[in-house]
Amino acid sequence: MDQPLADAAGNALEIRAVIAAFQSGQGALFELSLSLAEDCLALAGLAPESACGLCLGKSGRAFRAHGGSAGRAARSARASRPLPAARAVVLPVPAPAAGFVGAIETTALGQSVVRLGGGRLHSADRIDPAVGLAALARIGVPVAAGEPLAFVHAADADGAERAVLAVQAAYRIDLAPPPAEPLIRERITRHG
């Protein structure tokens, strides 16, 4: 995986990103989900176009197709148990130079979320669902020096500052845009 599918990493932030992707019907996360749905329908002997009919559009059909409702998802921020948000610190991750996002070390991004408390280093560790990374810049995006590559959502200032440095180190900024890559490079099928 060359880059995150969504523009977020971390429990609640990823859920918000999934809701936004399925409501808008846009982005890499939605495109991959649609492609997987088409493959599943083809394996079941159904027309792949059925996936498009269920999932495309901004009307919430994708939510209903999975047993949910767009209205319910939209209300989640106002529900009695809303998705948690970072209570202490949200910091931008400034681009160290002007150029184009040339590469992203996705493992380093994931490890920074774990160190923020969004995952476990030990089985007894508690997970903070509010911490993580948001508005992650994608490969090929032009950035100005100092422009945010992402935003760190942290429980404390020390953790936030460490995460800012880790995220900066995970991004490579190039002078020229990288060649465009397809979302899906290869499909591996089993013929039997």
Topology overview:
Layout (H helix, E strand, L loop, with lengths): L10 H14 L3 H16 L5 H7 L5 H5 L4 H6 L13 E6 L4 E6 L1 H13 L13 E3 L7 E2 L4 E7 L2 H14 E4 L18
Antiparallel strand pairs: 1-5, 2-4, 2-6, 3-5
Helix and strand content put the structural class at alpha+beta
Instruction: Give the mean pLDDT.
Output: 84
CATH superfamily of the largest domain: Pyrimidine nucleoside phosphorylase-like, C-terminal domain
What pattern of helices and strands is seen along the backbone? HHHHHEEHEEEHE
Please state the second-level CATH architecture of the largest domain. Answer: Alpha-Beta Complex
The portion of residues assigned to helices is 25-40%
Indicate the low-confidence ranges by residue numbers.
76-80
Please report the first level of CATH classification, the CATH class of the largest domain: Alpha Beta
Radius of gyration: 18 Å
Number of domains: 2
Reported for the largest beta sheet, the result is: 3 strands, antiparallel
Q: Number of helical segments?
A: 7
Tell me the span between the first and last alpha carbons: 28 Å
The largest sheet has its strands arranged as 1-5-3
Portion in beta strands: 5-15%
CATH topology of the largest domain: Aldehyde Oxidoreductase, domain 3
Outline the structure in words.
The chain has a three-stranded antiparallel β-sheet with strand order 1-5-3. A three-stranded antiparallel β-sheet has the order 4-2-6. Helix content is 39%, strand content 15%. It folds into two domains: 11-78, no CATH class; 89-174, Alpha-Beta Complex (Aldehyde Oxidoreductase, domain 3). It has helices at 11-24, 28-43, 49-55, 61-65, 70-75, 106-118, 157-170; strands at residues 89-94, 99-104, 132-134, 142-143, 148-154, 171-174. It is built from seven helices and six strands.
